[in-house]
Specification:
By secondary structure, the protein is of the alpha+beta class. The protein is built from two helices and two strands. It is flat.
Length: 45
């Protein structure tokens, strides 16, 4: 689709392996933009 606005996500997880996997999966999607990452929910807030 043309001129799509990407979905913006913030990754927050305390398990580095899972975070890396999610980053790799989402980074390959043209309609998803990773705004940032945090090691925990409290880091996000």
């Amino acid at each position: 689709m043309k001129n799509m606005v990407p979905i913006t996500v913030l990754l927050a997880n305390d398990q580095p392996v899972l975070s890396e996997g999610m980053r790799v999966l989402l980074a390959g999607q043209p309609d998803i933009r990773i705004a940032g990452e945090a090691a925990s929910g409290s880091d996000v807030v």
